[in-house]
Amino acid sequence: MTQPYLFHAGEATVLAKEGQFTDAMPEILIGRTDGPVGQAFANMMAQSKGHTAMFAIRACNQLVRPATILVPKVTLKDMANIDLFGGVVQSATADAVVDCLIEGIIPKELANELCIISLVWIDPRCATDPNLDKKDMYRTNYEATKLALKRALNNEPSVEELIANRHTIKHDMDDWS
Questions:
Q1: CA triplet 20, 23, 27: central angle to 5 degrees?
Q2: Could you tell me which of 113, 150, 131, 140 has the C-alpha nearest to residue 24?
Q3: How far apart are CA 98 and CA 108, in angstroms?
Q4: How far apart are CA 71 and CA 68, in angstroms?
Q5: Which of 20, 31, 43, 105 could pair with 100 as two cysteines, CB 3.0-4.6 Å apart?
Q6: pLDDT of the chain along its 177 residues, tens only?
Q7: d(CA 51, CA 73)
């Protein structure tokens, strides 16, 4: 049997409202700081060109627990995208983590023993969209982060569900099978 909370992975997609490019698709790892997720978390502190990681904070001096690091899935090439990443997306992610503590999705007693890595998507069109709805961007990232954490800690989807749906659920982008 594996050690509890050693390594859990989850993902979720929450779609934007009509006319927005604010779909959120976080991919989450959550696990103990003294395990493989903790090692990966520490390694993320060494920044790589274009994919700068940052902590999820609710405000200055308010780092969330479990400590959470955000990593963009695409290269952030301009201040507009960096501002969205370090503003709306960071805020939504931080609030989702704290609310997961409040709701018991993440056990409070393990808040300082776990860490989270969240790979986040920002559609590059958001930064230049004159009609960008930051509230919708917050909503999608908040909802998707909470759902991804819940799925990770519940090991969802189950192996049984994956097997049962193998020939009925197709990839969203296309069907190559």
A1: 165
A2: 140
A3: 10
A4: 10
A5: 105
A6: 457 899 999 999 999 999 999 999 999 999 999 999 999 999 888 766 656 789 999 999 999 999 999 999 988 888 999 999 999 999 999 999 999 999 999 999 999 999 999 999 999 999 999 999 999 999 999 999 999 999 999 999 999 999 999 888 877 777 666
A7: 7
Q: What is the DSSP letter of 25?
A: -
**Tokens for 60?**
């200055």
Distance in angstroms between the alpha carbons of the first and the last residue of the chain: 35
In angstroms, rounded to a whole number, what is the distance separating the alpha carbons of residues 44 and 57? Answer: 16
Amino acid present at 25 = M
* Burial (CB count <10 Å: 0-12, 13-18, 19+), residue 68: buried
Task: Give Cα 171 to chain centroid, integer Å.
Answer: 20
Could you give the strand order of the β-sheet that contains 67-72, starting from the edge strand earlier in sequence? Answer: 8-11, 27-32, 114-120, 67-72, 54-55
Residue from 83, 120, 112, 116 nearest 97 by CA? 116
Contact 71, 119 (CB under 8 A): yes
Residue type at position 81: N
Q: How many Cα neighbours within 13 Å face the side chain of 140?
A: 21
